Amino acid sequence: MDALNQTRVIEFVSLGLTENWVLEVLFSVAFSITYVLTLLGNTLIIVTIVFSLCLHTPMYFFLSNLSFIDICHSSVTVPKMLKGLLLEKKTISFDNCITQLFSLHLFACAEIFLLTIMAYDRYGVCSTALSQCDEHQVCVQLAFALWLGGTVHSLAQTFLTIRLPYCGPNIIDSYFCNVPPVIKLVCTDTYLMGMLIVSNSGTVSLTCFLALVTSYTVILVSLRKQSAEGCRKALSTCSAHFMVVGFFFGPCIFLYTWADTSFSMDKVVSVFYTVVTPQPNPLIYTLRKEEVKSAIKHLRQKQVFSGSQAHNGFGVTSIIMDISLTRQRK
């Protein structure tokens, strides 16, 4: 409680990405387009999976969770960053800064755990478990576990950070509140506490990344028994997935294991996993799949047909009723 009583800073001033107004305009346009595409692509995936019975499988259950996390992960930092690019003075209150820090670690850690679960599901670990008991029950338990793990990790990071005394300065050389730039503003020696906080995130990221590498290595080794065409398709899928994993895990590991890097490099790396990575995820993981394309086309045809019957919002109701009737027939 003593540390909390010493907290005098009521707001932080962010230096943003750059002070060049030309770059600010270019960044605001580019990141606005990227953010909109992220929202549209991931929302399309969630709606398609929810309303398509053929996609009610463990794999698509986790992919819908991934889309939800990507939307939340981007929304934690991008809107505030876009606002900062348009304003001369970029400020954030202490409470909002801590809230942003908590949310960022929650969704980032949840995505790390989810990507790890999905990788081992491809290897067959989860498939074995699903064959022994109820699929829905196992999926829900795994989803609960990854969200619980993300919450515990985020609470630990937030608690350790908020306990430190902040009496000035209050300038963050970043475009969002994250642990490394925030704890540099503490007005006392926090080397040990800082190492504990940073190593916590670094250990989670590095451990899960090594687990992912192991999983994909086993998959690639097992491909030797497949046909040439099967190997080609599997390699294409795994390489695309691993590229996304690298874009997401790489910046996390970089930020939390090389703490002595320059702030400019930190900003460039941070943009990758807060802005860039969530945008291609829908295309790489889901929208390229034929069953998803077919489901989207089917839903669109239903919507058009229902729209010709009514114009007062009964289109969605028709889809829901259709799904209910299909379930009853089954």
Describe the structure.
It is found in: Membrane. Putative odorant or sperm cell receptor. Residues 41-285 form the G-protein coupled receptors family 1 profile domain. InterPro entries: GPCR_Rhodpsn, GPCR_Rhodpsn_7TM, Olfact_rcpt, Olfactory_Receptors. With 330 residues, the chain is an all-alpha fold. It has a single domain (2-288), classed as Rhodopsin 7-helix transmembrane proteins (Rhopdopsin 7-helix transmembrane proteins), CATH 1.20.1070.10. The protein has helices spanning 2-5, 21-51, 58-86, 94-123, 125-132, 135-162, 179-183, 191-222, 228-257, 263-276, 281-287, 290-309, 314-329, and strands at 11-14, 91-93, 171-172. The chain has a 3-stranded mixed beta sheet with strand order 2-1-3. The model is unreliable at 1-5, 123-133 and 307-330 (pLDDT under 50).
Overall CATH architecture: Up-down Bundle
| Beta strands, count | 3
The CATH superfamily title: Rhodopsin 7-helix transmembrane proteins
Q: Oligomeric state of the chains? A: single chain
Secondary structure blueprint with pairings:
Blueprint: H1 2-5, E1 11-14, H2 21-51, H3 58-86, E2 91-93, H4 94-123, H5 125-132, H6 135-162, E3 171-172, H7 179-183, H8 191-222, H9 228-257, H10 263-276, H11 281-287, H12 290-309, H13 314-329
Parallel strand pairs: 1-3
Antiparallel strand pairs: 1-2
Helix pairs in contact: 2-3, 2-11, 2-12, 3-4, 3-6, 3-11, 4-6, 4-8, 6-8, 8-9, 9-10, 12-13
Transmembrane segments: 21-53, 98-120, 202-223, 235-259
Membrane topology: Multi-pass membrane protein
GO molecular function, one term: G protein-coupled receptor activity
